[in-house]
Amino acid sequence: MEITKLGVVETRFAELIWENEPLSSTQLVRICQKELLWKKPTTYTVLRKLCERGLFQNQSSIVTSRISRDEYYARQCEQFVADTFEGSLPAFFAAFTTRKQLSPAEVEQLQQMIDRCREENR
Fold first, then answer.
1. Is 2's pLDDT higher than 70?
2. Which of 27, 38, 47, 100 has the fewest CB neighbours in a 10 Å radius?
3. Per-residue pLDDT tens for 60-71?
4. In a domain, 56, yes or no
């Protein structure tokens, strides 16, 4: 299933679902009224569209995700690297670190990830 990128407002809406799921569609309407200043029809329209795109489901008026927040963002990162750097993670990393110096803690975290990948590939 291919998930397309969400716009800014759709992302905020999705975050509200991920933060509160499972929730009733009535609860979602209340949250969207408070957080996004939306009326009920707007909430249901956006929910329907994101359900059609495979991100969420609304079964028996209970809204849940079909794809977790982490999975969604992982897919978006993979797509960005594929589109921008021909799928090369080293090329992405080289571009990223051209302007941003990594802290020792960040270097250590990255090294741990690399070590874990090496272990998994043995």
1. no
2. 100
3. 999 999 999 999
4. yes
